[in-house]
Automatic annotation (TrEMBL):
The chain crosses the membrane at residues 6-22, 27-45, 51-70. Residues 87-141 form the NfeD-like C-terminal domain. It is a multi-pass membrane protein. Gene3D superfamilies: Nucleic acid-binding proteins. InterPro entries: Membrane_assoc_protease, NA-bd_OB-fold, NfeD-like_C. This is NfeD family protein. Its main location: membrane. It comes from Nibribacter ruber.
């Protein structure tokens, strides 16, 4: 079975563009386009093995550098919601201890995240997400407001 090199570049480009649809980061889109450029070059110049990786590298870097202002403007557009920063104000549960000097693990929804906190948090403790970097959540303990709850009368 003979697989041409351009096919590999083409499949990589399609996978990166599909990945962009899920992440909306704009980086996978540019890398997908760069892989497609490499696929075209690999198709027309199959003997030049060095050309597709070089073209993909240059195209990817140029697209990322020169479109950064465009993507920044798109992210600030009214109505744009960055899914990467949608974790704020969500509740979670500590799975592995979190200390001020060590990251722990929290479960938010069905996802596990690395988390940092200003105080020590124990497994099973409920937390609320304060902010989010790309891979680490800043959390604090969830304190329920008991003053607003009606007092339960004792049955005894």
């Amino acid at each position: 079975m003979d697989i041409s090199l351009w096919w590999l570049w083409f499949v990589a480009g399609v996978l990166l563009i599909v990945g962009e649809m899920f992440t909306v980061s704009f980086y996978l889109l540019w890398l997908g386009i760069a892989a497609m450029v490499a696929a075209v070059l690999a198709y027309f110049f199959p003997e030049e093995y060095w050309l597709p990786p070089l073209a993909a590298s240059i195209t990817g870097v140029l697209l990322i550098v020169f479109t950064k202002p465009l993507t920044a403007r798109a992210r600030q557009a009214k109505g744009y919601h960055d899914p990467a920063f949608s974790m704020a104000n969500r509740q979670g549960e500590v799975v592995e201890p979190v200390t001020p000097t060590r990251l722990g693990i929290v479960k938010v929804g069905n996802e596990m995240w690395s988390a940092s906190a200003q105080e020590t948090l124990q497994p099973g403790q409920l937390v609320i997400v304060i902010s989010q970097s790309s891979t680490v959540l800043q959390v604090q303990p969830l304190v329920e407001n008991t003053q607003d709850r009606p007092q339960q009368e004792s049955v005894w």
